[in-house]
Amino acid sequence: MSTALQHLPAQNRYVFNKDGVEVGLTDYQLVDRDIHITHTEIDPSMRGAGLASEMVQSVLDHIRTDTDYRVVAECPYVVTWLSRHPEYQELEQRA
Fold first, then answer.
1. β-strands 34-42, 21-31: how paired?
2. Has this prediction a pTM greater than 0.85?
């Protein structure tokens, strides 16, 4: 099983693919230097396999590596994910 994250900046969206098939998405809005993660979704037929966690981690890894944005979690799933992964909480503290 191979997974890949695709960034679609014109759509304010990340798309998550498994074996070449889109299985999830993450929507965001940019406000100044903040990236507001507003929505995450995994295809209902693929839920329960840990893909949502993998997708959120991939999105946050991309933000950490390729931007200087401060993460503002608005999606309840991302809020919970961040509370369980303190190693990513510094993204919420960026100036």
1. antiparallel
2. yes
